[in-house]
Write a structure and sequence with these properties.
This protein is of the alpha/beta class. It has ten helices and 14 strands. The chain folds into two domains: 175 residues, Thiolase/Chalcone synthase (Peroxisomal Thiolase, Chain A, domain 1, 3-Layer(aba) Sandwich), CATH 3.40.47.10; 151 residues, Peroxisomal Thiolase, Chain A, domain 1, CATH 3.40.47. A five-stranded mixed β-sheet has the order 1-7-6-4-5, sandwiched between helices. Strands 8-14-13-11-12 form a five-stranded mixed β-sheet, with helices on both faces. A two-stranded antiparallel ribbon has the order 2-3. β13 and β14 form a beta hairpin. α7 packs parallel to α8. The longest helix is centred in the C-terminal third of the chain and has 26 residues.
Length: 341
């Protein structure tokens, strides 16, 4: 491909929440006192959803894709050129879900890419990759598929669900359809890697062992007061930083964007980011009390809700931003929404 790069658009998103909502009382029956019980990071949402015991990440993505198929036709999905995936807990340790998703949805994509390191910012990273590939001639259509399935698998283990961290996550899946088009253009994307923080998110098992070794004890996230303080500081800084960078390049003040959609680790981050961008609550969409921390699925789930509810209208600009893990990655993307056909 020569000359100017083609314009690329986020055409649509579709999502899936597994099972019935699980209330906070579910965790109350298991809760034990721990040193982090009162930490702001672990103030539980009212509800969340859990993946079913035998439900795979591929199952979740297939279910999330159904509304895209209904709105755009099965042929559109089957003809996807670029498949970009992220799964919080892969169904198989040695490879991602791309092959299984492609087979289940009848695709023969030229590109299959797994964004395991994207974490809570995986949807933004997926937009950047899809935009880059499609704009330079790698194909016409991309599908970004996100599966967050840790809540019902990792955090609901009998030994883990007694901890304060267990009540916060929820499960969901989402897909985003990206095409060469000027209908709903991706205006700009900023992604930053903070390699000095890689490894600060750890898996804690008692007694200690590697995650793949057999033995007693269940794995959970290795939180400490010191680590939490660092993560709060990093997240509070990084999400506004990447958001301001994108807004600066598209010539718009953050306070003037029509809708802000972020990941949603807890209420403190949501409030702090909104205040940093000088946005009122009604222009920052979240589903924290309905769904909990959705990790990488948080942005597309909230974007889908905002579109379906009419909160985001054709011609308006949505800014998406998130940080990942303990702060080793962050990203933001702006889209001028063209409406759902």
């Amino acid at each position: 491909m020569s000359g100017a790069m083609a314009e690329v658009s986020l055409i649509d998103v579709s999502t899936y929440l597994p099972g019935e909502p699980i209330g906070a009382d579910y965790y109350a029956q298991f809760a034990e006192s721990d040193e982090l019980r009162d930490n702001v990071m672990f103030r539980a949402p009212k509800f969340r959803h859990h993946v079913a015991p035998d439900e795979t990440a591929v199952d979740m993505v297939e279910r999330a894709a159904q509304r895209l198929i209904e709105r755009h036709g099965r042929e559109t999905i089957e003809n996807v050129d670029v498949l970009i995936t992220h799964t919080q807990v892969p169904d198989m340790a040695f490879y991602g879900e791309g092959g299984g998703i492609a087979h289940r949805l009848g695709m023969r994509p030229s590109w299959v890419l797994d964004l395991h390191n994207g974490g809570c910012a995986a949807f933004v990273l997926g937009l950047r990759m899809a935009r880059q590939l499609l704009s330079t001639g790698a194909g016409h259509t991309a599908l970004i598929a996100i599966a967050q399935n840790a809540a019902g698998q990792v955090f609901d283990q009998p030994g883990v669900r007694r901890k304060s961290q267990a009540a916060v996550p929820g499960d969901a899946a989402a897909v985003g359809l990206v095409t060469v088009s000027d209908k709903s253009p991706i205006l700009d994307v900023e992604c930053r890697t903070y390699g000095e923080y890689a490894g600060d998110m750890t898996l804690a098992i008692d007694p200690p062992r590697k995650w793949w070794q057999a033995g007693p004890g269940e794995g959970c996230i290795g939180f400490t007061e010191t680590k939490i303080t660092k993560v709060l500081a990093r997240g509070n800084r990084q999400v506004p930083e990447v958001s301001f960078a994108v807004c600066d390049r598209i010539g718009l003040q953050p306070k003037d964007i029509d809708l802000f959609v972020s990941n949603q680790p807890n209420r403190v981050f949501l409030r702090n980011w909104r205040e940093a961008l000088e946005l009122p609550p009604e222009r920052h969409r979240d589903t924290f009390d309905e769904c909990g921390n959705l990790f990488g699925a948080g942005i597309p789930v909230n974007l889908d809700r905002a579109i379906s509810d009419g909160q985001l209208k054709a011609g308006e600009i949505v800014l998406m931003a998130a940080f990942a893990h303990a702060g080793d990655f962050a990203g933001a993307a702006a889209v001028r929404w063209g409406g759902r056909s």
